[in-house]
Amino acid sequence: MCQKIRMENxxxxxxxxxxPENIGAAARAAANMGVGQLIVSxxxxxxxxRVLKVxxxxxxxxxxxxxxxxxxxxxxxGFNWIVGTTARLGGTRRVNSSPADLAxxxxxxxxxxxxxxxxxxxxRGLTNEDLQLCHELVNxxxxxxxxxxxxxxxxxxxxxLFQARTRAPECHIPRLACRHELENMYEELxxxxxxxxYINHENPEHRLDKARNFLSRYQLRAREVSIIRGLCRxxxxxxxxxxxxxxxxxxAGSPKNQETG
Length: 261
What we know:
- This protein is an alpha/beta fold.
- It has helices spanning 20-32, 48-55, 60-64, 72-76, 99-109, 128-131, 150-163, 179-195, 204-215, 222-252, 255-260, and strands spanning 10-15, 37-41, 67-69, 81-85, 115-119, 136-138.
- It has two domains: 7-163, 3-Layer(aba) Sandwich (Alpha/beta knot); 179-260, no CATH class.
- Keywords: Cytoplasm, Methyltransferase, S-adenosyl-L-methionine, Transferase, tRNA processing.
């Protein structure tokens, strides 16, 4: 029996779009392939009449149910696995999957997890800061000219997801921590690193980026995120207690206290 991706658990997220017609065309592509949800994050100009005109009647339901968010973290907060799309390669942009490889990987992932495929603005794509919210990156190979129209890129990704099949039994992937849970963990890590002077206070994001890259290699579950956050709190409590004990010992051993004794 063939296994397929649960398309109802997949969402297309369009961030910082400039042109309403591109939203409509992307919605049409997503609807053609059975994608369950469309989310628009921080659109520059959201003219629903222009969006619906391009989406046509077939995708009007997806557009009318579309969620509009003011920030990208808000848009991604409830997702357990986030895939960022990028045309630019190299540097910190380590692409882990091709569209077909990604689709096969998401078959077991989509069973109990909400998956977001994230696209950036038409003129420049996702920034490095945007990509920090992603678990992995995917690149659509081209014959040289790497820039695709937004709706074209959405169609390629949705087609590969729709076509993905596997006959081999896949390992079960339980519910993973959502983006909101992960961001709370990273914020607590950042505060802990600062308290124990593990990071440079002038550039705290540098060390945190390395922690993000390390932890993103693992499919962290909610309880594992809770363990890491609990460890952070314990480190801070232990450090504070050591400081208090040291201050008390110093005060007790001061010359003034010795004379009084």
